[in-house]
Amino acid sequence: MKGFIQTLKNIWSLQELRDKIIVTLSLILVYRFASYISLPAINMAEVGNLLDHFQKQGGGKQAAGLLGLLSSFTGGAFSHASIMALGIMPYISASIIVQLMGMAIPYLQKLQKDGESGRKTLNQITRWLTIGVCLVQAPFYLGTITQVFLPYEQFRSAYYIDPQSIAFYVPSVVILVAGSIFAMWLGEKITDKGIGNGISILIMVGILAGLPTAFLQEFTTQTGNGGLGSIMILIEVLFWLVVILLAIVLSVAVRKIPIQYVSRAHATGGSNRNLLQGARQWIPLKVNASGVMPLIFAQALMFVPGLLTKFDDTNTFLAGFKNPFSWQYNVLLVILIIIFSYFYTAITIPVNQMADDLKRNGGLIPKVRPGQETANYLDDILSKITLPGAFFLSIFAILPALVHGGFVQTEGFSHFFGGTSLLIMVGVILDTVQQINTYLLNHHYDGLMQSKLSRTSNL
């Protein structure tokens, strides 16, 4: 505990790091404040009553299946008709599209290899594509909230003007696009001026915003009539901590591939002959190299089976795909995650380029020939470790459904036991802590250099 307190003191004593943390927290507060500003044509107070009434009428599970993911990423702004309702997700979608298009478009492939200048051009393309994604998503979002809530005549007062008129749609679309661009700007500013990856931090903050309310609802349910008591709350918290620990293990687990770098050095003892010397290092191949992307892709496609119920709303089998806690939904989700894990790993881990870089730098894997044989060897290892990685990722994806059917009473709290939310939180926190540790280590090295220079000047 003393070491942890001392680390906090060290962090706060560094002016540069302290300023970055203050900037990050300030921009997060701005983002959270903006998420509570409703669209001008909508009465925010009535929207809260609409949501409560909708959940009591049994729409909670369908909303969780179709809108819950976006709502959790935006900290509830999506479900509360906020100006930040689309949040940062259009930028994420645009980034994924640009990354996938880079496989097929030579111009984008060239930009990916052009270093800093190419990165800036790709970022600009992603920004413009974000606006395009917003222009598509905003009308659909507005159509969704009007279709869901308009049947309730007693809640017509939630709209100041006719929600099906052009006077409602055009200004609302412009505001939603501006809100998403503002969220993207905040994320980029956090990356440049703050600490950590700004886009990921905003997503994590949106997810964490719902944790206190979810826990309070679970506590009230468990300690009320029909609950299992406060001891079950303690068991749930302990189990949640174990799940977080396993998520950390999944995020950092690697398979180390030994490599040997051969270099030439002068032999000592007056001889001019050269000796071959080797420096052994490792290639860390992550067990879950694709991160949460397979889960995001899979959940995005899970919207499609649910939409089929519009053509046949009497089919109970198809209706199960709209409920994220049903067996139909989770079986298909597992299959999609495994497929996308292999797909995304194959397109993001360039084994051929890794083999060429090793050969160019004089590195080799013991007992494996440089070149194509090395690439085949790395691809074979990657294929073997991707399966267990995809399997454990699938377990985390369906864990909310498992715990909700077991001992967790409320749907909201069960979502924090796995899925995209937990893995994103763990990944962002690990990345941010790593950056803070880097600042601390750099300050330590700077201090040593300054002390040496001062001693030298005194001599």
TrEMBL record:
Location of the protein in the cell: Cell membrane; Membrane
Residue ranges the record marks as coiled coil: none
GO biological processes: intracellular protein transmembrane transport; protein targeting; protein transport by the Sec complex
Keyword Transmembrane helix: yes
GO cellular component: plasma membrane
Keywords: Cell membrane, Membrane, Protein transport, Translocation, Transmembrane, Transmembrane helix, Transport
Protein's UniProt keywords contain Nucleotidyltransferase: no
Annotated transmembrane regions: 21-42, 88-108, 128-150, 166-186, 198-216, 228-254, 287-307, 327-351, 385-407, 413-433
Main location: membrane
Membrane topology: Multi-pass membrane protein
HAMAP family: SecY (MF_01465)
Role according to the record: The central subunit of the protein translocation channel SecYEG. Consists of two halves formed by TMs 1-5 and 6-10. These two domains form a lateral gate at the front which open onto the bilayer between TMs 2 and 7, and are clamped together by SecE at the back. The channel is closed by both a pore ring composed of hydrophobic SecY resides and a short helix (helix 2A) on the extracellular side of the membrane which forms a plug. The plug probably moves laterally to allow the channel to open. The ring and the pore may move independently.
Family: Belongs to the SecY/SEC61-alpha family.
Subunit field text: Component of the Sec protein translocase complex. Heterotrimer consisting of SecY, SecE and SecG subunits. The heterotrimers can form oligomers, although 1 heterotrimer is thought to be able to translocate proteins. Interacts with the ribosome. Interacts with SecDF, and other proteins may be involved. Interacts with SecA.
Protein name listed in UniProt: Protein translocase subunit SecY
